[in-house]
Amino acid sequence: MKTDIHPKFFDSVEIKCSCGNVILTASTRERLKTELCSKCHPFYTGQQKLVDTAGRVDKFEAKRKKAAALVEEASKKAAAKKSKKAEVYKEKEVPQEVIERAMGGTGEVATGGKWGQPIGDAPATEVAKSDAAEVATEVAEEKASKPKKVSKRKAAAKKVA
User: Fold this and answer.
1) Residue 29 within any structural domain of the chain
2) Could you tell me if residue 110 is inside a domain?
3) What is the DSSP letter of 27?
4) Count of domains in the chain?
5) For each of the chain's 161 residues, which pLDDT tens digit applies?
6) CATH of the domain at 39
7) Who contacts 160 (Cβ-Cβ below 8 Å, separation ≥6)?
């Protein structure tokens, strides 16, 4: 063993606790102090408060039961919706005054559609054809009225040729 490299060793050192208890031991330090010892520590004296880890498990189990109850309730609601019979549509009675006003006051169906037929009874294909024809004529008129634009390159090529 090399000399002068190891710390000084003390055979009898007193460890003093804040409660007044003194313990004799050996150490490399001459004096030692501590706040707790086996005489005053709650674990050794029986005054320890245990941490309630079981409470955490109980809380978790309660959450699981609640979630399962919610899932079950939702499935019952879905089953009730499926089993629920569709309500039958009941037509409401319309007062005679309203019918006469809608008919134009004469008791006959009001006319005034594009083809002299009752409003809303024009065939969809005829409407589509007439609308398409109108749009086509408008586009043709616009094209005829606009002068053609010639790019600068084409104009330069015509002058050269």
Assistant:
1) yes
2) no
3) E
4) 1
5) 688 888 889 999 999 999 999 999 999 999 999 998 888 887 777 776 666 666 788 888 899 999 999 999 999 988 888 777 656 667 788 888 888 777 765 544 445 545 555 555 556 666 667 777 888 888 888 877 776 666 677 667 766 65
6) 4.10.80.400
7) none
Distance separating alpha carbons of residues 64 and 53, to the nearest angstrom: 17
Are 17 and 35 contacting, i.e. CB atoms less than 8 angstroms apart? Answer: yes
- What tokens appear for 80 in the block? 């009730």
Q: CA 146 to CA 88: how far, in whole Å?
A: 61
Angle at CA of residue 85, ends 79 and 89, nearest 5°: 145
Which residue segment(s) compose the domain that 40 sits in?
10-45
Q: Is residue 94 part of a domain?
A: no
Q: Does residue 57 form part of some domain?
A: no
